[in-house]
Amino acid sequence: MSRLRSDFWVSAYIRRCNVEGVEAVLRKRGAAEAGAVFVKVDRLDGTASLYGPAPQLFLDDSGERLFSVVLVDATPLDVEERMQREQKFDPDLWLVEVDDRAGRHFLDLAPES
After folding, report:
1. What angle do CA 21, 43, 104 make, to 5 degrees?
2. Which of 4, 23, 65, 85 has the fewest beta carbons under 10 Å from its own?
3. In the prediction, which pLDDT does 25 show?
4. Hey, is 64 helix, strand or coil?
5. Run of H or E residues at 95
6. Do the Cβ atoms of 12 and 69 come closer than 8 Å?
7. Phi and psi for 43 in degrees, rounded to 5?
8. 82 lies in which domain range?
9. Which Pfam families match (predicted)?
10. Domain for residue 15, yes or no?
11. Three-state DSSP state, 77
12. Which residues pair with 67 in a beta bridge?
């Protein structure tokens, strides 16, 4: 099964967050068809987490995007610095920012290795 395009997935993800009452905005637009998607979750208390694409070994034939934790309980500045490094490596990535005091992200996480 083929994977949903990044632009469609991001649009649906932002809509899902908004339906749940969580503010989510597109911070960086990447490659429409296959750009890697990163999600920053800001808890608005000085802590943030970053989620990125799961390693390839966790992907299956379902076409679902799986995410893994990149940073957890970091400062928003730490997340921004990490994303600057990621963008140097992959300028076609997407970045969505979610603001939620409870830290909700609505992502499918890969099993921990």
Report:
1. 45
2. 85
3. 98
4. coil
5. strand 94-99
6. no
7. -85, 0
8. 6-99
9. DUF1491
10. yes
11. helix
12. 53, 109
Token pair belonging to 105: 């992200």
Task: Tell me which residue has tokens 């989620």.
Answer: 51
Is 108 within the bounds of a domain?
no
Tokens 């750009």 appear where? 35
**Contact in structure between 36 and 5 (CB atoms under 8 Å):** no
- Could you give the number of structural domains in the chain? 1
Q: Provide CB contacts within 8 A for 1, sequence distance 6+.
A: 61, 62, 63
42-96: pLDDT as tens digits: 999 999 999 999 987 655 566 678 999 999 999 999 999 999 999 999 999 999 9
pTM above 0.85, yes or no: yes
Tokens of 99: 């603001």
Q: In what helix (H) or strand (E) does residue 49 lie, and over which residues does it extend?
A: strand 48-53
Residue 113 inside a domain? The answer is no
Tokens of 53: 């694409």
Task: At 113, list the tokens.
Answer: 């290795």
